Amino acid sequence: MPITVQFMEEERALLVTLVDPWTKIELERAFKEDQMYRDLFAEAHPGIAIDMICDVKNGNKTYSNVLYGRKSPSFSHITKGLAIAVGASPLVQRLMSVVIGTVQRKRTLYFADTIEEALTIIHKKREI
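The chain above was modelled as a monomer; its predicted structure follows.
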């Protein structure tokens, strides 16, 4: 599967892994999983955010669908938390920053080299 969705950090973080080649249809399926989980989580845990880690280190080459990522529930759902991209090339970092900037101007997109580094960012931000 080129796109997988899994939950971690006691269900307070969503790990989305993209592996080339991936398609818009697969991304839509991942969005549906994300939306369903977030809806259930919001009911059970009102007011608590879910952070998103997007691992693109093996999915950097499918640029044609990258702008579609702005439709992710991770950017619009009431449970939206931090957004961290792992392993993004400089070009993909720039594209993702532009997408985030057009969707939510006040939102910060973080970049990390590893999932462990992304988790460290999450832990530090939760302490604040």
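The longest helix spans residues 24-44.
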